[in-house]
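The following block was generated as part of the benchmark described in Methods. Ligand: flavin-adenine dinucleotide.
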Amino acid sequence: MSVSTIARRRHRVVIIGSGFGGLFAAKHLKRADVDVTLIAKTTHHLFQPLLYQVATGILSVGEIAPATRMILRKQKNAEVLLGDVVGIDLTNKTVTSKLMDWERVTPFDSLIVAAGAQQSYFGNDHFEAFAPGMKTVDDALELRGRILGAFEAAEVTTSQAERERRLTFVVVGAGPTGVEVVGQIAELAHRTLEGAFRTIDPSEARVILIEAAPAVLPPMGPKLGLKAQRRLEKMGVEVMLNTMVTNVDYMGLTVKEKDGTERRIDCACKVWSAGVQASPLGRIIAEQSDGTECDRAGRVIVEPDLTVKGHPAVFVIGDLMNVPGVPGQAQGAIQGAVYATKHIKSGLKGEDPATRKPFKYLDKGSMATISRFNAVCQVGKLEFSGFLAWLAWLGLHLYYLVGGRNRLIAVISWFVTFLGRGRGQMAITERWVFARRAMDQVQEQQTPKAIG
Ligand SMILES: Cc1cc2nc3c(=O)[nH]c(=O)nc-3n(C[C@H](O)[C@H](O)[C@H](O)COP(=O)(O)OP(=O)(O)OC[C@H]3O[C@@H](n4cnc5c(N)ncnc54)[C@H](O)[C@@H]3O)c2cc1C
């Protein structure tokens, strides 16, 4: 027998995803006697809560999306693999990922799946081309191009109707992301771009927030929701509640009000922040378990120890898991990562999975910024808003941004934007705006046509 086969093999942990769940899981295994392989389809760890600041020209991509490989470069027991996970085999304990034409099969002893969620269009996927969501770096850059590009087009057109269409911005969904992005579009129009155009007045832009529920920020309760709504209205945002979007096309969108009235809003720039759909990897895992199911959004209804039935070494965490009372927020993913890695480590010491205490979520609250110096914040029963809430938002986001350099640059950028008028990241390119359509066309060309 060769020496290499006698040598003890270390426990192999495969982590899928480099978001909050995946990255925190890898970091919490730093001192463990394991080999970690982190596989993700993006090269970076994305700080999603600040995507809207990339979309509106405040921060650059690098500040919110540091390279995962660089974050983990000193962690000797961890390797980072770029690849789209296309298969998970729970029986043979392997993960199959693809990068271009290369396929790689990675074996595991323990698996942590933190593949997150994507935007949901509630079955109307054709809306996406006209109303991008905000989940990825590409989304944020495309939206920056569309938002600033709309002002550029309005400056050039000689048609009054087209100018009005270009200067109408619609954000669909009044959750934290919708509120934050609509607030920033209003600030761009009223503050940042003041005096920068010659034939249009950017402050004449119509900025609209559409929500199907009867309130803004529904999960934060009526008091904070109303505060956020009043603040947005003061900034010139039209808030349309009880309003459903029934169609989206190039020229605008159609909405249906509570009384059934349908009407058109002509607008060039639309942002979708209305729903989430979990990664399809959730269903792949659930189908191989001993009866674990997924909810309507595709999230895995995990066991109390965040595993799937019959597979105590397979953890599903973050936005991909469904645990009652745990919101789809960064804290849910981070705490899930800490819990899963703790039990992988105690498993190495012989812990029986049957004796695991259930995962307990500690609610640290939620918050949303509305404009500069103004936010709403909820911690347990405590609710507050205004400048104090904004300071809390600032501190928390700085704390969780990865890397000292990123924190420093973010502080400088915020100083420039919030105290002054400037925004350092106003560059846009045609390719950012049209890349999605070009990719769709390429895919269409590559799909073999059915012979009729
Ligand atoms: C715009 C926006 C604003 C937000 N604001 C806040 C906020 O203010 N506060 C808050 O607490 N939360 C906020 N959230 C939610 C928070 O970002 C998520 O809850 C959190 O990111 C979930 O972490 P995760 O690790 O489960 O998933 P994600 O962070 O989404 O990471 C998923 C990872 O999986 C990878 N992946 C997916 N599929 C595959 C595959 N097939 N193969 C390989 N890799 C794959 C992705 O590349 C990514 O690295 C916001 C989210 C968004 C989109």
